[in-house]
Structures are given as structure tokens and as C-alpha cells.
């Protein structure tokens, strides 16, 4: 496993919860987290030394800008890879990673954990079955106050706030760029505004306002920010036969029928909590490693989400719509 920040620690805990204890941690030692959970764990500070243990898989949970530095050697060594999103901060090296995976034989899963959310999975099922008719338009709102994410560290030094580590709200909160494609199909055009408009002391954008057009003819708007208090993350899809809704606050999916306004509510399991997304993702990754499943989002899907995020920045910088 590469990286011991917040998500690295979560993956370590989940691996242990799933009965995996043969773990090597590759790290730089810059994490601000307590190290008591590392007792008894093999820790390496050199990537070559870590790969010399011949791991079956590598979990990449270091800063975005450093993902490919680990992924390429791991793929060349034939490892399966669970890579945190986004796959990188640029497309440089992505084609080489694709070739390395082909040559090495490993599979890659991108860590878009919202694909494992029961509420969003229910929306995907309703859309697939055309329960609410044909999707016409969608709206996503996602805002969270960046300083509250990791209270134990200075938010200004976090990768999310630093351009050199691949931060910024567009790539850091890029999950909707993936799950909107998953739900509504391929994107063929977008426009965007981005900027730094809050009082946060950061060097990257804290707002993104994005418009998407899909090959199906549907359109979507997406708002992302680093300053919303209290936080919000919700999705609404307008269809020909009503509204489909999902709210991360309660995890429920809803279908509001056009005919009479009646609402059907699909609640997540009673014991559902956020870490279940990551546990389900890790279990899926283990199934991929064992040949029991194909990645729900492989390198191609991760690359497309990154391309959209980069196109957002291009659109905002050039003041024009980007099309494919």
C-alpha cells in the first residue's frame, strides 16, 4: 500500500477488517497521522524495496500528482492496482500505464467509491429499467468546508489545497464526473466557470460550475465548492415520467411520479454508514484480483473522468465550450 494519509489509513483498516494482514506499507513519512496503527507492519521508504516484496496488489493512496510514480512500476511488476481517484493531475503517463498493465497482466480499479452507494445503485437500476422514463436533465450540488475535512492538519498544506500535489475542487470532488457518466452515458460537450472566491487561504480553485451535454441529448449542471457549511451532496434527475433524487445526507433514493406526485423511497440498509462504500469497494477489488469480477471502473473510466476535469479547467481558462 502506498500512502498513509486519511484514505490510506482507511484502506489499511478495511483490509484488516476483511482478514488481510500480509501488508507492506510504502510511505514518505510526511503523514500527520498518529503511527500507533503501524505497529508490527512492514514499512518501506523506498518504492523498489516495497515492490521487492512481490505484492499481488498495490493500493495507491498517495497525493494525486504522485499516483503514476507508483502505478507504473507496480503495473510493470504485474500487480493489480486499486488507485484512488483522480488517476493523476494530467494525462501524461496514462498511455504508458495502460501499456504497462497490458504487458504485466494486472487489473486496475479506480477508487470512485460512490459507485458502491446503494442509493446511487438504485438510481442506476431505475434508469436502466426506464422506471421513470427517459432522463432529460440532471443537477448535482456538492459543497463541503475544506478546513473541516481533516481537523488534525492544516488544510492549507493538504493535497486538496495545493496545486503541486494535484489539488483543487474540480479534481478532488470529481466523483460526479464519474457517476453522471455511469448513470446518463457518455459526455460529448461541456462548459465551465472556476475560481477562488471564498476566504480560504488556498492556491487552487474553490468553486466549479459545470455544464455537461450527453450523447443521449440529456444535459446536466454540476456545482462543486470547498466552502459550503453545512455540507450538501445531492443529485436530481428529471425524467419524462417524474424525478429521481438522491441525497447523501440520508443515503436514500427517491422516485417522485409525474402523474400524481406520489413518492417511492428506497432507503439504504439500516446499519449503513460511509465506510461501507469503501468496504464494498475493497471487497470488489479483492474479487477482481481473484478473477471473480471485472473492475466497475477501470483505467479507461478513470481516464475519461480525468479528461472531463481537465476540460473543465480548459473551458474556464479559455471561456469556451469544449466538445468531443
UniProtKB/TrEMBL annotation:
Q: Name one GO molecular function term.
A: nucleotide binding
Q: Name one Pfam family in it.
A: GFO_IDH_MocA
Superkingdom classification of source: Bacteria
This protein's record includes keyword Oxidoreductase: yes
- Domain (GFO/IDH/MocA-like oxidoreductase) ranges: 121-244
Give the Gfo/Idh/MocA-like oxidoreductase N-terminal domain ranges. Answer: 1-112
**Mind listing the UniProt keywords for this protein, alphabetically?**
Oxidoreductase
Q: Which family does it belong to?
A: Belongs to the Gfo/Idh/MocA family.
Name-wise, this protein is: Dehydrogenase
Species name:
Levilinea saccharolytica
Amino acid at each position: 500500500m502506498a500512502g498513509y494519509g486519511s484514505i490510506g489509513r482507511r484502506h489499511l483498516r478495511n483490509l484488516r477488517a476483511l482478514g488481510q494482514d500480509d501488508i507492506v506499507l510504502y510511505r514518505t513519512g510526511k503523514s500527520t497521522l498518529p503511527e500507533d496503527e503501524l505497529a508490527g507492519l512492514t514499512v518501506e521508504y523506498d518504492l523498489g524495496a516495497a515492490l521487492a516484496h512481490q505484492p499481488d496488489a498495490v493500493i495507491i493512496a498517495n497525493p494525486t500528482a504522485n499516483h503514476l510514480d507508483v502505478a507504473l512500476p507496480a503495473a510493470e511488476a504485474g500487480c493489480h492496482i486499486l488507485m484512488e481517484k483522480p488517476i493523476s493531475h494530467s494525462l501524461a503517463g496514462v498511455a504508458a500505464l495502460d501499456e504497462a498493465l497490458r504487458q504485466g497482466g494486472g487489473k486496475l480499479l479506480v477508487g470512485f467509491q460512490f459507485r458502491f452507494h446503494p442509493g446511487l445503485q438504485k438510481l442506476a437500476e431505475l434508469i436502466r429499467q426506464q422506471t421513470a422514463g427517459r432522463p432529460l436533465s440532471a443537477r448535482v450540488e456538492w459543497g463541503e468546508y475544506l478546513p473541516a475535512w481533516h481537523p488534525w492538519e492544516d488544510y492549507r498544506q493538504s493535497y486538496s489545497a495545493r496545486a503541486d500535489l494535484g489539488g483543487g475542487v474540480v479534481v478532488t470532488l470529481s466523483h460526479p464526473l464519474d457517476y453522471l457518466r455511469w448513470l446518463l452515458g457518455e459526455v460529448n460537450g461541456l462548459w465551465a466557470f472556476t475560481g477562488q472566491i471564498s476566504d480560504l487561504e488556498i492556491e487552487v480553485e474553490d468553486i466549479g460550475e459545470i455544464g455537461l451535454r450527453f450523447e443521449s441529448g440529456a444535459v446536466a449542471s454540476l456545482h462543486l465548492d470547498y466552502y459550503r457549511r453545512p455540507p450538501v451532496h445531492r443529485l436530481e434527475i428529471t425524467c419524462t415520467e417524474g424525478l429521481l433524487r438522491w441525497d447523501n445526507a440520508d443515503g436514500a433514493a427517491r422516485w417522485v411520479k409525474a402523474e400524481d406526485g406520489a413518492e417511492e423511497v428506497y432507503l439504504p440498509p439500516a446499519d449503513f454508514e460511509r465506510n461501507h462504500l469503501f468496504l464494498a469497494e475493497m471487497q470488489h477489488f479483492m474479487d477482481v484480483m481473484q478473477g471473480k469480477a471485472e473492475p466497475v471502473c477501470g483505467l479507461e473510466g478513470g481516464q475519461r473522468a480525468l479528461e472531463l476535469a481537465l476540460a473543465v479547467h480548459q473551458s474556464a481558462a479559455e471561456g469556451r465550450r469544449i466538445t468531443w
